Amino acid sequence: MVKPKTEEEIALLRENAILVSKTLAEVGKAVAPGVTTARLNEVAETFIRDHGAVPSFLGFEGFPAAICASVNDVVVHGFPSDYALREGDIVTADIGTLYKGYNGDSAYTFPVGEVDPETRKLLDVTKASLYKGIEAAVAGNRTGDIGYAVQSYAESFGFSVVRELEGHGLGKEMHEEPGVPNYGRRGHGCRLVDGMVICIEPMINAGGRGVYLARNGWAVHTADHKNSAHFELTVVVRKGRAEQLSTFDYIEKSTVNF
Ligand code: MG
Ligand code: MG
Question: Distance, CA 68 to ligand 1 centroid (Å)?
Answer without folding.
Answer: 8
